[in-house]
Amino acid sequence: MRIHYTAPSWHGGFHEFMSKAFRSLGHDLYDFDDNGSGFERNFRRLAVRIPRWEYGADDAFRAMVSRRWLRSVKEYDPDLVVLEHAPNILPSVVRAARQLGYKVFYWTDSPPAGAQAKDLLASLKAADEIFTDDREREWMTTLFHPSEFHFLALGGDPDVFHPIPNVPKEYDVVFVGSLSPQTGDGVIRAEIISAIPDKYKVAVFGNDVAYWFKSYPKLKERTLSTRAVPASQVNEIYNKAKIVLGIYTTFHIETVSARTHETALAGAFQIVDWRKGLDELYPAGLIERFKYAREINGLIDKWIDRPKEREEVAQKVRAHALAHHTWRHRAESMLKIFREKYGRS
Predict the structure, then answer these.
(1) What is the dihedral of CA 12, 195, 171, 321, to 10 degrees?
(2) CA-to-CA distance for 207 and 265, rounded, in angstroms?
(3) Hey, is 255 helix, strand or coil?
(4) Residue 2 forms beta bridges with which residues?
(5) Taking the alpha carbons of 91, 97, 100, 104 in that order, is the dihedral positive or negative?
């Protein structure tokens, strides 16, 4: 089968992982990056500086990307068009692709934000099938009845995230992720990480973390990287940690982060904040959960000196993730719906 697949290249490696998953199932794939070409990004960078044309420049940029997207669909002539959180593709061209006879699946795995939100939400209405990793998001339940969309969680790549034999545990607690100054996530994560007792060796690898150094001096002492870390290096970090701390974004209500699956596949023990979806995707006892920040240090105290038990739990959660939560599983679920509803394979 021929699949035209679109996702932003900046989004946590999802584009690469899902592309590989489709190909691993034997399908031909056309990859389209909705982040734009070099020329299109340069146009946007310059045009948004024009006084009172910031939103107009964004709209013009998306129109350029969208025209190129529709041309590529026509030229590739796929059996299925898949968009994964592609807010730069305008709803008008999504509708145009459907009018040409193409089946369009849209998977939204991140909240729409800023000027892009209007186009992403409108594009959902233009698609044949809608998939979401969070059924509880307000805009999902406002625009759609649950019968109108499919739940599709994020996944992990076992080729990238896996145990590394004989790696010493250099860190007691590790956090990997963004500490964005634009949202509440940054301050919540900075507060929690800074509150971990000094007796523990804490390592932070977080893009945008430097913004918080003035307010949280202890965070600066614990930070080993202020930029996004490549996935292969993240796997090494997880393997070197006794405990991986997961702190979900405030934008997610039930979503289980891809990092949860990646940590599991790396064979690491993790403590994460509870989300509704966590209970659905992972049986009790496999991942330690917390609901309130004040619980975290007690959970670290509980598990830090129990290496054998941590390893046993980590092996069980890795086996569960391998059996149920890889990107290939997500591709299979999406294509199963395509086969069942549209009689295509």
Answers:
(1) -40
(2) 23
(3) coil
(4) 28
(5) negative
